[in-house]
Amino acid sequence: MDMEKKLQELKEYISSYPDFPKPGILFRDMFSLLRNPNAFKDLRDVMVEISKRNIPDAQAVVGLESRGFLFGSVLAIELGLPFVPIRKPGKLPGELNKVTYQLEYGTDTFEIQKDAVTPGLKVLLVDDLLATGGSLKAGCQLIEESGGVVAGCLVIMELVDLRGRDKISQPVFSLLEF
């Protein structure tokens, strides 16, 4: 089956919940896709194919807390690369690099272990969703401030109307667009 057809089938597994978590929001839930083992396998295969084709020189996979862990760790295993988590404050031991970034209402912080990204390491950054772009941009910034190079970003879903991609200077590959 060609990739476009496979992506279209995967999109059908995404459930939509109006007015969640608050009125006016249409929440796209990918956990319904993960409940189907065959769809999850197809998603894995597509992630691997797109990564190999577009970011072949990646030396590590970095996943953003928390759903980026689900997809990033699977991808790291399939590509034979190390997996590195970026976490919220207070979740990682040892010496850390951190970045604070702006949200719609306030700020948040990401942390990474200092020894996890070595200077010049080419990283594939993975997350579940690209919406306004704040967390993905912060992940890129944290990797670069740690000495790494973001070779590309892979997201499972992109909410195109929110234009989060415009905030990211690194290549972004999204599988499912809404």
TrEMBL record:
GO terms for biological process: adenine salvage; AMP salvage; purine ribonucleoside salvage. Pathway: Purine metabolism; AMP biosynthesis via salvage pathway; AMP from adenine: step 1/1. GO terms for molecular function: adenine binding; adenine phosphoribosyltransferase activity; AMP binding. It catalyses: AMP + diphosphate = 5-phospho-alpha-D-ribose 1-diphosphate + adenine. Keywords: Cytoplasm, Glycosyltransferase, Purine salvage, Transferase. Its EC number is 2.4.2.7. It is found in: Cytoplasm. GO terms for cellular component: cytoplasm. Residues 33-158 form the Phosphoribosyltransferase domain. InterPro entries: Ade_phspho_trans, PRTase-like, PRTase_dom, UPRTase/APRTase. Pfam families: Pribosyltran. NCBIfam families: apt, PRK02304.1-3, PRK02304.1-5. Homodimer. Belongs to the purine/pyrimidine phosphoribosyltransferase family. Catalyzes a salvage reaction resulting in the formation of AMP, that is energically less costly than de novo synthesis. This is Adenine phosphoribosyltransferase. It comes from Orchesella cincta (Springtail).
